[in-house]
Amino acid sequence: MGNKIKHFFRDVNQWSIYTVFLVLFIAIPIFAIVANLFDEAGEMWSHIVQYFLLDYLSNSIILLLGTGVLCTAMGVGAAWIVTKYEFPFRPVLEWLLFLPLAIPSYIVAYAYVGMFGNGGSVIQLLQSVGLSIQKIEMMNLAGLIWVLSVSLFPYVYASTRAMFSSQSQVLRESAYLLGASEKRYFFSIALPMALPAIIGGSFLVFMEVLNDYGAAKYFGINTFTTGIFRTWTALEDLQSAIYLSALLVVLVFLLMGLVKWQRGKKSFNVNVKRQSTNQGKRIHLRGGKRNLYVILVCIPILFGFVLPFGQLLYWAGLTFDSMFNVELLWISLQSFGVAFSAAFLVLVCALALVYFVQWNNLRGFAFLSKIATIGYVVPGAIIGIGIISSSQSIVDFFAHTFQLKVGYLFYGGSMVLVYAYVFRFLAVAYNPLEANSLKLGKNLAESAYLLGQKRFTTLVNIELPLL
């Protein structure tokens, strides 16, 4: 034991200390939530458990299942068609399938009610051609499942398309030579091989569903996220909101465990050399089958992007004169400013984590860095509660200890919001940077060190341009 402690202090360097401080600073929201769990339950907790908790849980699970099934059907189907078949406008449709991600799900929810509600634009169009339809009810659980599905299916489509594109043509030709039909090849070979990618994309969909607040709030559906905000703001019981957040974190980690358990240690190897000579051979479709497949690909684009975007353009045309002014431009510039600041800090923090871990001499720090990237799988409501709770503790500390009012530093600008974005999206930058840094290897950096260059100089002049 004494030798281990001696070796530990021997191996600690400045980068080890920087890593610890950076991780602790970024992960403050999670630590704040965990610390508050040891306090007594809020005064509304028993009321929430008795009347609302089952509703939150059941609606959230139904949303996960319904959205997961629809997103998988649309994403996998579209990925298979654009990857394995050739038809008119395929290259254009292949990239249009990503566009539903450009419109936030709560905006899609507003657009659908504007199209299919009382006096909606689509309802008026149908009535003009003689159809006596008053409205199509969207503001229910089924409507929310549909809105979230047409907004989020590109997550499944993107990961599955990449997997289908990398599958060897040799496998397909071998299956056909053995008498397998196209349908049997898809269900017996292609789909099982793409299962890890499908589940990975579905997991991102699940995280977005659990994160959703705007669409669920607008449709009046009780979910964990709407319940957390209602308990926090309307009932003014932060402690009970923290308890709900903890339950939602448990649900998130159960989903993560299921994904990891399903994947297990599966891996699929293909003959890359032979694959490269056969990749890109698509089956040319003709006749009715071609028309059917084009329609199937266009349906997600139509309902996920074209209709909502058309409704937004219609509203923009109606309100252009009254809404397009200097105030709107200023709000837009503020949004871009916050986005740019958050993106820049996310990149800086991700680079620091990746290389601080590599430069320190202690084992296990790679796991420590993962704590800072956990924000991507934590719903935004929980991040908000953790940040507000910890910020208020800092404000109270300065007020009671030094009689200083520092609340304006936290709540008078965008600083807390940018910090929340850094914690929320750090994993988006960290994971690809870490993967690319491993591809670079250590030879270049070590050669620079032997030539007398310092670590930071080597990073800026050699490794960063290559990244």
Task: Write down the Rg.
Answer: 26 Å
What is the assembly state of the chains in this entry?
Answer: single chain
Order of helices and strands: HHHHHEHHHHHHHHHHEHHHHHHHH
What class would the helix/strand composition place it in?
mainly alpha
Residue share in helices? over 70%
Indicate the overall shape.
globular
Count of distinct strands: 2
- Which residues sit in consecutive blocks of at least 5 with pLDDT less than 50? 269-279
Summed up, the helix count is 23
Largest sheet features = 2 strands, parallel
Q: Approximately what portion of the residues adopt beta-strand conformation?
A: under 5%
Distance between the termini: 41 Å
Q: Can you list the strand order of the major beta sheet?
A: 1-2
Walkthrough of the structure:
This protein has 467 residues and is mainly α. Helices cover 78% and strands 1% of the residues. Strands 1-2 form a two-stranded parallel sheet. The longest helix is centred in the middle third of the chain and has 37 residues. It is globular, with a radius of gyration of 26 Å. About 2% of the residues have low confidence.
